[in-house]
Every structure is written in C-alpha cells, then in structure tokens.
Write a structure and sequence with these properties.
By secondary structure, the chain is α+β, with helices and mostly antiparallel strands. It has 28 helices and 19 strands. The strands form 4 sheets. Strands 2-3-1-9-8-10 form a 6-stranded antiparallel beta sheet, covered by helices on one side. Strands 4-5-6-7-11-12 form a 6-stranded antiparallel beta sheet, with helices on one face. A 5-stranded parallel beta sheet has the order 15-14-13-16-17, with helices on both faces. The longest helix is centred in the last third of the chain and has 23 residues.
C-alpha cells in the first residue's frame, strides 16, 4: 500500500518542488521510499511513496513500460497477479519488476482504459500515456483506496489524500454547503473542501486535450424484486459463498511480509480469522481492542475466538485519556469530522500492529454492507417490506430489535417518527431508516455552527443532493427497499466514512495495509444476487455468512447479534483529559474566530458541560466531537477563512 500523486499542467511546467512536497506529505503511506518522475517537457509529473509488501527490493515506482512512453504509480494490491502476469508475458510484454503493480501498466497497453475491468483488489492508480497525452486516474470498485483531485491555477492535481493536494499548492477552503450536508448527503465525490473532489468508487478519471471527465466502469447491481436467485437451494448458496469468501481470504494472504488479522467479537472479523487460520499452516497473529466499559468491550469474545483459531493474540487496552491524546492526529489522517471516537481507537490499533512489526492486516469491514448486516436494514425490512406480517407481530419484532441493540440506538437505529425528507420520500417512495437517523442527528450536530454561513443551504433539497448522479431507473427502480437503502449507504457512508474513519486512513496513518475480503467484487457481486432471506432471516442478520463459516467460528460468535464497533462515549467530566481538551479548544480565540462556528454557542456549550448530568453529556458528545474535529481540520490544514 502506498501514496500516489500526479500533476498535469496545460501551461507552465510542473514545479518539481511542489511534486516532492506532495509525495513527502504521504510519507506515512509509504515510508520505504519516495520517488518522482517528470516528463521531458515538464508538463506532467507522477510521485510515489512506497510501502513495500511484494517485491521488496525491486518494486520501486513510478514504473515505465518497455518504450518509456507510459508511466504508472499505484496504491494498493492486485490479487491473482501472477496468473495475469503470465498471460501478459505470453503476449510479449516484458516486466521490469516482480511487483503486482506492474500488471496494470501492461494491461493498459493491451486494453486501454478497459484495463480496470481485469483488476481484482483494493487500488488506486495514476497513469500517464505520453502517446495520447492522457492522464488516467482510477479507483477500485467499492472505494477502499482513496483518490482525490482538484483543478487549480491551470493544473490538475491528483493524490491519495487531500493533505498532499494542499502540500502541492491547492488552497484549503471549506465547502460550506458540503459541511452542512454531512457525509450522508455528499454522494460519492464531494468533500468538505472547496474544489477538492473524490474520484467516485468504480470510476476512472480521464484528463486529455478535450478536458476532464469521470467514467464509470462498475457499479453495485441489485436485481429487481423477485429476480434474485430464488430457485437456488440454501445449501448450494452457502457452499458457493463459502468458496468465494475463502478464495478472497486466500488471495489476500499473499504477501512477501507477515500478515495479521484485526479481531473483534463480531462475526465478520471472526470469520476472516477462522478462514485465514484454516488456510495458513502457521499461527495467525490477531489484534483486539479492549475498552473499560463492558457495553463496548468485546475482548472476552475475541479471546475465545483467537484461542479456537490457534491465533497468537494481542490485546490493546484503550483508555479515554488515550483517545483524548490521539484525537487530533487521528482526525488529521481521517480528513473528515467524526461524532464518535471509534476512529481514534482504530488509529491506536493500527499503531500497535505496526509496532509489532506487521505491514498487512486482514479486516472485516464491508460485511455489513454486502450482507445487509446493520440493524437499520432489518428496521427497513420490517417497516417497508414486511408483506402480510401481522401488525402486532411487526411491532413485537421492532421492539425486540430496539431492545437487543441498545448500543445502536440513535446511531444505527432511528426513531421512525422523524419526518426526514419529503423529496426523498417522493422520489424513492420511502426514506431509508439510516437517512431518517441522519436527518434527526443533523440538527444537533449543527447547533454550534454559525447559521449565517449555512443559511443559504438550510433549505437545500436533500433528494436532489443525494440522488443527482445516481441512475434511479437502472439502480433503484423496482428494487426492494432494503436493497435501495444498502445501495445509497454504499455510495455515501461506506466510502466517505466507514472506509476512511475506520479503514484505510487509520491503517495507513501507521503504514499498515488493510485488506478487505468482504469487499472483493466477486464476493459482493454474488451476494447482491442472492435472496434477501439469505441475508436477513427473521431476527438473524447475515444468515448466509453465519452458515458458511459456522465451522470456523465459535458458538458464541455464531449466535451473537450484530454489535457495532463504537468506542464508549467520552465522559466529558471535569478533570479528564478529554474534558480539558474540549474546554481549551471551545474557549480558544482560534476556534472562536472560525467563520463556520458561533463563538457564543461554543462558550455556552463549554459552560454547560461543567455541570451537566451523565445523560446530558452523552447527548452532547456527537456535536462536541463533530465541532472539535472541524477545528482540528481547520488548524492542521490551515484552512483559509
């Protein structure tokens, strides 16, 4: 896993210093070497910060083809690359390295932009074709690896992280409307920073003489209601899913360095560890976070699973003071505001993995997306797709769902009395419960913000902002409500929050590569076509995964209901380091001078926290952390205005 940069100018030459600064800013993504390449005419440059995992000695980038007229810089892993390489060599291609990255270069020579269709993995890359004077920048199908771009002062800037764009000279300015919208309504490309966009998942960017355009090459495809593989019996479904998931794990164990596993007490990471242990001939190293609050601590369940898998188990104790001390650094790497400190906990987890000498870790992220594992999807099923279910039984199941998911209330389970967006209801026919939750929480998060800044966007049409750019007829029309809700989540929350705050950015902050078997597109493509009952069976979520991996997880894990990965609410009690951090920031001149924030409201929150009850502090936590993280980004990126 690495960091990549590209600068393309249509006028004056690219500054070698700007390119070098951008690459240096990504040192955490690639501490094993940084290199830059400039075209002979000086109008384009590629940069690469390398984390060496395959071909440790010879895989330096950017890489050129045989003729030297195509150059590429890659972030990520291409799986099954040896087979593809053999085919390319048989076709006459010569390889300069033994790394997986080089196959994309020669696939491009064979297939042009269609090369992405032949790649399997987590990746982002930039490629310069001197012959056609075209820059390509592609991102993997689910958006596991980040890729951003900006047009500034006559040049196109592309990089793995926004901080590299800023280091190269792109100004950091708030996109006030995007901040107002929050992650849920920003879609696949918008960021909190003006003029900085993400290449959407499953897209590639093309910049040539005709301008800049984004081209989709893959999308999540749910079948119309009633057209899933209903004729396939349960046993073959389970067997096929097990084979695909096992293959995805096997491919992700391929590395020239040791591979470890993240392990919680949840089904997803336990299944990955169990399969990895079966496929490996030696003990797998597992890493688990532990919290002092029993409601959030999965340590004992994880320890039981590690023992059953024969794993070498490591426990990382996380205290609230640790979260306070590392909050600013984690947000700097996440490049996004948060409402819970779970991202900081993942930041600490990846640091422990690095300190133990590991560069690669398998993770369970993505299972809840492809298998409809979140409780809000069960809520949608009961509210919008329960057929002829008796109303009394429906109320009983909804009550049981709330009572068995106490930690998820207000975060993953909505109060369905909130009206939400009339525009969404009009265009979709319903409002997914996770979006109901977003609308309910947004007012609280915005409480300390300066309404004068946000007033022009307060009445923005949520339906338009969320659904513009989505082919409703091709992707949502005729689909079951749960599938529609899952599609919209996968286009917004998954790439913009889950895979950033809890995935790539927290891992790469410490030069650790996360690999996600559940987001293998072969796995996801199969699961999308199975009947919904194979995912949600009554009160059991991820039924297909439970049955497919029952022999490699403990009975405790097999029977356990979904438990979200959240850190305990920070106490905000006087005398604690988090309380002191909040008080120092909320009362500071620097925070008070931010145009986005209302100084009087900040001071009022700071005053109220001093005498707040535990319930009041818990209710205040999301908006306090949201504002605190905005302040960190403002300070660390030197945001203008």
């Amino acid at each position: 896993m690495c960091g990549i940069v590209a600068i393309l100018s249509h006028g004056r030459q690219v500054s070698p210093e700007a390119l070098a600064r951008a690459v240096a800013r990504l040192h955490h993504r690639g501490p094993d070497g940084q290199r830059c390449w400039l075209a002979p005419d000086g109008l384009v440059g590629l940069g690469h910060a390398r984390l060496s995992i395959i071909d440790l000695e010879g895989g330096a980038q950017p890489i050129a083809n045989e003729e030297g007229d195509i150059h590429i810089a890659v972030n990520g892993e291409f799986y099954d690359f040896e087979r593809i390489r053999r085919g390319l060599e048989d076709a006459g291609h010569s390889f300069r390295t033994k790394s997986d990255s080089e196959i994309a270069l020669h696939l491009y020579e064979e297939h042009g932009a269609g090369a992405v269709q032949h790649l399997r993995g987590e990746f982002a890359f930039t490629l310069w074709d001197q012959r056609s004077r075209t820059l390509y920048a592609a991102r993997d199908r689910y958006g596991i690896k980040p890729l951003y771009y900006s047009l500034h002062d006559g040049a196109l800037y592309v990089a793995s992280e926004m901080k590299a764009l800023f280091a190269a000279g792109v100004p950091a300015r708030w996109d006030v409307e995007a901040v107002h919208l929050g992650v849920a309504l920003r879609g696949g490309s918008r960021t909190p920073f003006l003029g900085v966009r993400a290449v959407p998942p499953g897209h590639y960017l093309v910049a040539d003489r005709e301008g800049l355009r984004l081209v989709p090459y893959w999308d999540i495809d749910y079948p119309p209601a009633g057209e899933a593989a209903a004729d396939l019996a349960e046993a073959p479904l389970v067997a096929r899913f097990r084979a695909l998931l096992e293959e995805a794990v096997r491919l992700r164990l391929r590395a020239d360095v040791p591979v470890a596993c993240y392990l919680s007490g949840g089904l997803d990471s336990c299944a990955i560890l169990g399969l990895a242990a079966r496929l490996r001939g030696d003990a797998v190293r597992s890493f688990t976070l532990r919290f002092a609050d029993a409601d959030y601590d999965e340590g004992p369940i994880a320890a039981e699973m590690a023992a059953a898998a024969g794993a070498e188990h490591t426990v990382i104790e996380v205290r609230e003071d640790d979260l306070a001390d590392n909050f600013a650094e984690a947000i700097f790497h996440a490049e996004a505001p948060c409402t819970n400190a779970h991202g900081v906990a993942k930041f600490l987890l990846s640091r422990s993995v690095r300190d133990a000498g590991y560069k690669v870790v398998l993770t369970g992220e993505g299972a809840d997306e492809v298998l409809a594992g979140y409780p809000h999807f069960r809520q949608d099923l009961l509210h919008f797709d329960s057929g002829d279910l008796d109303p009394g039984e429906k109320r009983r199941q909804l009550r049981a769902l709330r009572e068995s998911n106490l930690v998820s209330r207000g975060r993953l389970l909505a109060d369905m009395t909130v009206e939400g967006s009339a525009g969404l209801r009009r265009r979709l026919g319903f409002v997914p419960s996770w979006l109901q939750l977003h609308f309910a929480a947004r007012e609280s998060r915005h409480m300390p913000l300066n309404f004068a800044c946000f007033r022009p966007y307060a009445e923005g049409d949520a339906a338009r902002l969320l659904l513009d750019g989505i082919d409703l007829e091709a992707r949502l029309a005729g689909r079951r409500p749960v599938d529609q809700a899952a599609y919209l989540w996968a286009k917004t929350m998954l790439p913009n929050y889950i895979l950033a705050m809890l995935g790539d950015r927290m891992e790469m902050a410490h030069s650790v590569e996360g690999r996600l078997p559940f987001l293998d597109h072969e796995v996801g493509g199969f699961v999308n076509r199975v009947p919904l009952a194979a995912k949600i069976r009554g009160s059991v979520e991820k039924y297909l995964l439970r049955e497919a991996t029952r022999d490699v997880v403990t009975e405790t894990v097999y029977r356990r209901e979904k438990h979200p990965f959240l850190s305990p609410p920070v106490s905000l009690v006087p005398g604690t380091r988090f309380y002191d951090l909040v008080q120092d920031c909320f009362r500071s001149e620097a925070m008070g001078s931010m145009p986005l924030l209302d100084r009087a409201k900040l001071l009022d929150i700071a005053e109220r926290l001093a005498g707040a009850t535990r319930q009041q502090r818990g209710a205040a936590e999301p908006r306090v952390l949201h504002v605190l993280s905005l302040f960190v980004l403002h300070q660390r990126f030197g945001v203008e205005g």
